[in-house]
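Problem 3 from the worked examples.
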Amino acid sequence: MRENLDNQHSFIFLKWFNFFVYGSVVLFTSFFPLYLQDVGMNKLEIGSVMSAGALVSLIANPFWGIWTDRYQNIRRIVLLMLTGTLVLSQLIFQAHTYESVYIFILFFYFFQGPLFAESNTMILSYVDSSPKRFGSFRLWGSLGWAFTAILAGPVIEWAGVSVLSYLFALLLCLAMVMLISLPRPKNIIGSAPLPFRGLGKTISNPFFLCFIFFGILVSIPNTMNGIFVPLYITELGGSKTMVGLAVFLSSILEFGVLLLFDKLLRKRIPVMLACLTLVSLLFVLRWWLMADATTPLQVAFIQVLHCITFGGFFYVGTQLTMLLVARPLRSSGQALYALAWSGVAGILGGVLGGWLYKNLGVQTMYQSAVFLTLIGTLGFGGMWLFAGSGGYRPPAAQEEELEDISAARQ
């Protein structure tokens, strides 16, 4: 009886931990560009600073994964990451030059960048062998993201963007309190920090490489929008409250969209490619509407499409990767997909978007987004027709061959 009560308390602490962690991240991603603009940085400098996380993640993710597996105490690892994130964030807010901000942001992303992945692994360790589902905890993260954005907007509008450092520190401290209140998890789920052992076999699949390439083209504009939409809203005369509303609208329906995909989507390659083509086409519509927006309220309501476009692209892309890559190589495939989505596209989106915004204007940036996404959409459409006509055979033979080799070695 006492053990069940302790478990219930642990689950409550986990839910609030997810709420505060996601809330702290949305503060940084959505309002920090406004802070950088307020201290005098131009659009290219803002883009390069915000895209630094994608570069650092190439090192940070495997580093923390290795130490998690070696130390076997993921709660303390996550606590160390939160502490480093808190300390580095305050150093960033005290920095006054582009060079010093950029140096501190690199160390900041080393701690903060892999936080979602390690937190998810920790939650899975707690819910393992229990009737609880991971999705219920992910829902609290979505709620933290949405409601922090909508509530922080008026506070920042009233107190000024400099209050961002205090709000960020407050949410991180609350997350740390929830984390300290948790017992050590009984089950440790490995985080697979070295997923590239099968990389050579994975990149020898030309169909999968086409999928990765077209995915990068669709992902670059999404990074541009994520970084620069707060600046776009304020340039159109919108307030910090309007920025918070835009973020709220972009995320409040995302969980429902993921559940809908999970229930209705058939896990067949042609079906998923058709769905990915449709989602990418909605991306095209979204960027076209953004290029023609004339009021901050229009921009805010266009962000509702984020729930379908980002949620659909992330979900379908992850599931499709599982089908396009042989089973023994799926870890490498997922790592390559994540690297393309958040790494390559993150770096290119921040730098390219910043250059376009600074030199040619925001409308040109979104028109370029339409062009890039349209090429990706046509590419996915071609892959869909090719797979639907029977021109592509899933790597079943390769999978069986690798399984036979593995069995023979054992």
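Problem 4, a separate protein:
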Amino acid sequence: MVRRTKEEAQETRSQIIEAAEKAFFERGVARTTLADIATLAGVTRGAIYWHFSNKADLVQAMLDTLHEPLDEMAKASVDADELDPLGCMRKLLIHLFHQVALDPKTRRINEILFHKCEFTDEMCDLRLQRVAASLDCNVQIDLALSNAVNRGQLPENLDTARAAISLHAYIDGILYQWLLAPDSFQLHLDAERWVETGLDMLRLSPSLRK
């Protein structure tokens, strides 16, 4: 009985997240209320507050559903024992572009994040979470690039901290532009070339040297 209750609670939580994703995509985060989400999910507002502290917490839970498929490749690229850290990063980024372009759920959530999520007063908590996530991403990229330098895959005088920020900004920029105007260029078909363009920046840019 206890197990069934836990399963039902998890089902309700997933139901709320799915309803929130649909509402945020259609109306934007700022214009969507928890009452809207409760109606769409077929639950009470109390049920939402049982699982989530506020709208920012709910948005973060929605974003967290994207992380799991990429975890193994991300961990491999920051592993000092990985023999091909740059290759792991390359696979990770190509997979990311393919996922955004071909998986409807991934595309919707990224479009919400890039184009339909306003950091208004009620979303201050989410802004802090996004800042922390962005800084952590820079650290992870820095570790991966440092491993690639140690393996001789990137120049030994690469400024990995600056390169990490540059690569992060490049990937975000590609996603931002494609989600805004998907017909303007091929993300899926040219995923490998877009990734290689970013990696060439690390290999060849004099401004990224120490």
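Solution to problem 4. The two ends are 62 Å apart (CA to CA). DSSP finds ten helices and no strands in the chain.
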